[in-house]
Amino acid sequence: MTETKYEQVWNLDNLFPGGSESPSFDSYVKQLELEINGLEEKLNLFGNLVEMNESLRLESVIKNMGDIQKKLPQANSFITCLTAQNTKDQGVVVLRGVTSVMNARFESVIKKFQHIILETDEGNWTEIIETKALNEYKFILTKWREKRKDVTFR
């Protein structure tokens, strides 16, 4: 029986041409950073949820978070593949640092968001969470609120 050997090199140029120097990946990372900046700004303006009409702004924040939550792992995966392809590529080290900072900032945004929903008065929270705009997010928002309560009161 003959043994078939396959090359262990991926064609990452199909994703972002140019490896760690890819202009398209650089654009992707810069856009992701702008999205995180925008989300941070939205949360800084939010304060506590005090009215039912905040549900539309809350929905916008949740959608932004979801978009970022999809894109960050894609960036991290691409960098991991670049690292596996060439462990001596210094450009990858720089990219890893950039995405590590973005990951930390995004985690901070999630915690701040959870703090905002935790600090919302129970009566207002009940009204807000029952709005049509937040219907599909009710489960996760309730879980986040409960999780933050658990962490806060320990």
What does this structure look like?
By secondary structure, the chain is an all-alpha fold. The protein is built from five helices and no strands. The chain is elongated and about 70 Å long. The N and C termini lie far apart (63 Å). The mean pLDDT is 87.
Give a short overview.
With 154 residues, the chain is mainly α. 71% of the residues lie in helices and 0% in strands.
- What's the helix count? 5
Number of strands: 0
Helix content: over 70%
List low-confidence stretches. none
The amount of beta strand, in percent, is under 5%
Outline? elongated
Largest sheet: none
Question: How confident overall, as mean pLDDT?
Answer: 87
Question: In angstroms, what is the radius of gyration?
Answer: 20 Å
Provide the succession of SSEs.
Answer: HHHHH
Distance between the termini: 63 Å
SS-based structural class?
mainly alpha
Notable traits:
154 residues; 71% helix; single chain; mainly alpha
Secondary structure elements and their pairing?
Layout: H1 23-46, H2 54-85, H3 90-119, H4 122-129, H5 138-152
Helix pairs in contact: 1-2, 1-3, 2-3, 3-5
